Amino acid sequence: MRHYSLAVLLSILAALLLQCHPRADQSALGATTADAASSPIAASPMTPSSTPIADAAAPAEQRFALRDGRTAVVGPDDHVVIVGADGGSESESYCGANGISYARAATFFTQVARLVGASDKAALAELVNFPLRASTSVKTRAQFLDQYGSIFTPSEVSAIVQADPGEIFCRNGAFMLGDGELWAAPDTHGEYRLTTVNPPVPKSRNAAIEPKHR
């Protein structure tokens, strides 16, 4: 039996390891440039800052049926078109450009109409941005509660309750209900508040009245 020194045995073992694993003698930090180029990560031309981000799909238009057979067509950026039963466009406004969300505006007027129909003047006062423009200037909550009956007359209440809250028209940073009986706008905190109460008159006239909003 042959006897080998420890050094010889270690050399034989190292040779066997190299035959099984040719790259076992290279540490991670000692990899060659060629090795780095063959790495799928290193070969990628993308860097975190150059990774393309998929464009968000533009929101599709939404259609909301109104009570009288017409339709509110709401497109990207809350572009609102009221379409008649015959398919013709009756009104058009760019609510998004006015800082108005169609969905929030419709929800707000739904709440207002419910409170007006219930004569809940205390709760309605919480949705008013004073001073309120009405038949007279209503500067405070106390005045609003005291003059409620003269502000919301039976004809006014009827027009508000019958108006469709989904028929939103925006202009000058505000939005109106029905034929312009009510105007509302975001307050300084972005909350929607009533700013104007107009008597029930033809739409063309009410729409010409500049809403007062702060």
Explain briefly what this protein structure is.
This protein has 214 residues and is of the alpha+beta class.
Under CATH at level 1, the class of the largest domain stands as: Alpha Beta
Mean pLDDT: 79
CATH architecture tag of the largest domain:
Roll
Low-confidence stretches: 21-55, 204-209
Overall SS class? alpha+beta
CATH topology description of the largest domain: Nuclear Transport Factor 2, Chain: A
H/I helix tally:
9
Give the N-terminus to C-terminus distance in angstroms: 104 Å
Percent in helix: 25-40%
* Extended strand count: 10
Please provide a written account of the structure:
This protein starts with 5 loop residues before the first helix and ends in a 6-residue tail after the last helix. 33% of the residues lie in helices and 21% in strands. It contains nine helices and ten strands. The strands form two sheets. Strands 6-5-10-9-8-7 form a six-stranded mixed beta sheet. Helix 4 crosses helix 8. The chain is of the alpha+beta class. The chain is globular, with a radius of gyration of 35 Å.
Give the helix/strand layout.
Elements: H1 6-20, H2 33-37, H3 40-43, E1 62-65, E2 71-75, E3 79-83, E4 89-94, H4 102-117, H5 121-125, E5 128-133, E6 137-138, H6 141-146, H7 148-151, H8 154-162, E7 169-171, E8 174-177, E9 182-186, E10 192-197, H9 203-208
Parallel strand pairs: 5-10
Antiparallel strand pairs: 1-2, 2-3, 3-4, 5-6, 7-8, 8-9, 9-10
